[in-house]
Design goal:
7 helices; 13% strand; Rossmann fold; 7 strands
């Protein structure tokens, strides 16, 4: 393992940063001057590419191997999750923020619900975010961080304000995480701020073809849901604004104001 880097800029750990929105958040933070620790579970090559692209956006770190910035962990494994942030600290010297972007998103409903599926979603989507917030707070205490100097961003979902019974375990895990914003903001103040960011339909998936995605994306009071750029800019804003904690920023074009009987992916 490499020696800790000295004279480091502010560092953010972004979970699930190898792909999709996590990757875009990592790139956005790199553009904003952050050094990014890229977490992944199984997408090592994609995580390495994200790290390379982040380094290309930050000339101060361009001579450092991208391998230095990638960190594997299964967030459903509590022991592995508890080791994650200390590993980043050991490698990079300091961590100032955590963006909990990684999420398990598997379909179930009231008919197919099981304890096992619920437990898996809660471990990955709720428990891991709380453990990483706890670890960031402990790290801040150890290094003598100032008030509001550290921040946790929890990626949520507009469907919490516009509920439907699809993806039951996923929705429950995100609802618990949204409540944790308040509880963690209370418990970890004044050192750590905790902010939720809740996008609407932002990226397509294997469950939606391009035409259907475009149709659904327009279903909002503003005529469009969130773009990747919208979500990333909101995360960067929340990272930098030291007066925000214990709340959630909805970035969805107002989709949460409309009633949808099914999840977007099943409409």
């Amino acid at each position: 393992m490499s020696a800790p880097l000295s004279s480091a800029p502010r560092t953010a750990l972004v979970t699930g940063a190898g792909k999709r929105l996590g990757r875009e958040i990592a790139l956005g933070l790199a553009k904003a001057g952050w050094r990014v620790a890229v977490h992944y579970r199984s997408s090592e090559s994609e995580a390495l590419q994200t790290a390379q692209d982040c380094l290309a956006l930050n000339a101060a770190n361009s001579s450092i191997s991208p391998q230095t910035f990638i960190f594997q962990a299964d967030l459903a494994d509590e022991a592995a999750t508890r080791q994650l942030l200390p590993r980043v600290v050991q490698q990079l010297g300091q961590v100032d923020a955590v963006v909990n972007s990684a999420a398990l998103f598997e379909h179930d409903d009231v008919e197919s619900f099981s304890y096992a599926n619920m437990a898996q979603h809660w471990a990955s989507n709720t428990g891991a975010a709380i453990v990483l917030a706890q670890a960031l707070h402990q790290h801040g205490q150890a290094r003598g961080a100032q008030a509001a100097e550290s921040v946790v961003i929890n990626m949520l979902d507009q469907k919490l304000w516009n509920p439907n019974p699809d993806f039951l375990s996923y929705t429950l895990s995100k609802a618990a995480l949204e409540s944790a914003n308040t509880l963690l903001a209370q418990a970890l103040a004044p050192l750590v701020r905790v902010v939720g960011v809740a996008p609407g339909l932002t990226l397509t998936s294997h469950m939606l073809d391009d035409d259907k995605f475009q149709q659904l994306h327009k279903l909002s009071p503003l005529g469009r849901s969130s773009s990747v750029a919208d979500v990333v800019s909101t995360v960067v804003f929340a990272m930098h604004n030291r007066a925000i904690t214990g709340t959630t920023l909805l970035v969805d074009g107002g989709q949460h104001l409309m009633k949808f009987e099914r999840d977007f992916s099943l409409m």
